[in-house]
Design a protein that fits this description.
The protein has 183 residues and is an alpha/beta fold. 37% of the residues lie in helices and 19% in strands.
Length: 183
């Protein structure tokens, strides 16, 4: 019985890790690529960040990249089912507070249903703008390799850095990148 329980726990852990793992644009998994290779190869680095205007949860407001022109912006693609996203949101909130009006964080949910977004924000302490990518149209233009993936966009609207996944030390790397863009 104990070995059956260990097998079940291991299977659940493996499925959880795969849920946030790399995907192709069509949603199918890709294997073998390390994090650095995924980031270096991302086609948006050095290119203009794709524009978007999405509904905030509840649909009463719009969230857009254009509204924050002239600022450094982190555009983060995430989902309520993604375990690393629970770790990244508090880090993004700390960065938003640290840099004040020089930095904007926008969380773009790729969930099929927006119902869980407000609760996720409450659980993680996120006060930055959140949007729902209904039909994942914006996600397709950014091509995040996994959840979460964040894009650091400079004041001119150019993607300068891409972070695929959220790992130990990520917050410090993001802070360093943001500081380099604010010089």
């Amino acid at each position: 019985m104990r070995s059956l329980m260990r097998f079940g726990a291991a299977s659940a852990l493996s499925l959880g890790l795969l849920a946030c793992g790399p995907t192709t644009g069509s949603g199918s998994r890709v294997g073998g690529a390390n994090r650095a290779a995924e980031v270096e190869a991302h086609p948006l680095i050095g290119a203009a960040a794709p524009a978007f205007e999405l509904d905030a949860p509840g649909g009463k407001q719009k969230v857009s990249l254009a509204a924050h022109a002239g600022k450094v912006v982190i555009v983060d693609f995430w989902a309520t089912w993604c375990a690393p996203c629970h770790e990244s949101f508090p880090a993004y909130q700390r960065l938003a507070e640290k840099f004040g009006d020089q930095l904007v964080v926008i969380g773009v949910s790729v969930d099929d249903d927006p119902a869980g977004i407000p609760e996720f924000a409450k659980e993680t302490g996120a006060l930055f703008p959140l949007a729902w990518d209904d039909g994942q149209i914006t996600s397709k233009s950014y091509q995040p390799p996994k959840m979460p993936t964040s894009y650091v966009v400079d004041q001119s609207g150019i993607v300068r850095f891409v972070h695929s996944g959220f790992h130990s030390g990520e917050e410090q790397a993001l802070e360093s990148e943001i500081r380099s863009l604010l010089k």
